[in-house]
Write a structure and sequence with these properties.
211 residues; alpha+beta; 31% strand
Length: 211
Amino acid sequence: MAEGDAAHDDHPRGAPDDDRALERHLGNVIRELRQRDHLTIAEVATQAGISRGMLSKIETAQASASLDTLARIADALGVSMAHLFRHYNTPKGGAQLVKAGEGMEVVRRGTKRGHTYHLLAYDQGPRKTFEPFLVTMDDASEVFPTFEHPGTEFIHILEGRIEYRHGQQTYALGPGDSLTFRGDVPHGPETLIETPIRMLSIIVYGDDADR
């Protein structure tokens, strides 16, 4: 097949940025797949039925390929054509990373020595939707307060054993155990059975919560 039949001419000057972004994306994906399989431009071009120069231009976003050409390049690379587009226009990530030991320490009402809360994520907006804590307790003699707050709380024991009160009931919890409950019912540690205790505490707030 002639080079001109395999792909369009080089992208015209002043073309929309979105088109250029797509060409750059496709070129990067094709090059990464080719290099991953240790294939040369000549090998892929021959298999796809286009010239080496054209494949090189496609990889460097100097030319835009027709759908037929992209299908044959994908086949030469052993992937579907959809694979070439799968991460195009994916929203940028905005995950919040908190490294081990870097969670902000929070002082909660009534807590004293041997009872720490490290906040593992921080809401950026004016209203909190959830709060995840890593809670550490290592003083079995401390008298713990009860807590009440909007929303639903989920706790998961990572280490140690604890008797946890929610309302009028208590629950014996050990590593791997979880408890989910309404936050507006008085709750909190009743007895530290085996210390140190480490647990995840995640509070999910409702839309109308006053906080």
